[in-house]
Design brief:
about 325 residues, mainly beta, Jelly Rolls, Endonuclease I-creI, 9-stranded mixed β-sheet, 7-stranded mixed β-sheet, 20 strands
Length: about 325
Amino acid sequence: MKRIPRSQALLYELDYRLKPILHVAQGESFEVETEDAASGRLRAGNVLPTVENRPELRDYPPRVNPVAGPIFVEGARPGDLLAVRIEHIEVPEQGATWLRPGVGPLGDSKRWLGDSGPCTRILRNEPGPSGAFHDGTVHFDERISWPVQPFIGTLATATERHVPTSGFGQGPFGGNLDVRDFSPGHTVLLNVYQEGGLLFLGDVHASQADTEFTGTANEIRSVVRLSLTVVPGKRLSAPRVIKDRTIVFLGIDRPLESAVQRAIIAFMEWLVEDHGVAPRDAYLLTSIHPEMRVHVYQMVPGFGLDFVAGVEFPKHGP
């Protein structure tokens, strides 16, 4: 099986001019070794998230959320969709999250950060029934734990322009969206702007709360297995997630209500185009159909990121 090593997963931009580091056929499974969002710098609790320990933060834009790519898939052309099937995400024995005063929605609040300044919290992962960590348990401390729920935080195709940061680049092409449904067993649809699709991915998480309020989830290095196919001649307003029984329509914008509205409109367009619902009826259904659910995946005030919301609805339609 083809595999991209971690040494080639340290890009901090989404550049259509880069030479592909991997060519794959449609439907061919391959693996990517990814590094964590801190470039592997914070591997112990006594290593704090300071600029001294993370020199990539001195650059502008700061080099965060390293990615691997670009990956070229045969047959992908501008105006198509790239269907990214996430087959498996390997989870290591530990993850990390961190806080840095002055960075994040609550700034320098001593009420919530305390007097100790920056902190790095190492999260221990316990193997699950399979004997591996991907179906195991995350231990925050001796009292608090939850199931591992891995997903890809940054997933994107190259656009017609250079996106100078993988950490803050977002749009119809994907980017740093932190959508928890970019997870094993699901397929993500991304617009194709360049020959071959030119896929980038990285910033894998072992778990994340809705909104990722502090801007840092359970950050891990990983090995991701996936395959790519092409949906010809189709364009979306934002990425879309195909799950076993449902579809998630994403909206990316600020403020949050604009992101939610964009997701709702994408859902309405699907009702009209794929299920023949009259536009007025689609509009009415958004307020009365109980199976329409709204998720807030990313809402990190103070980081300059757009907010990411999703509308989830059954695949079979109304």
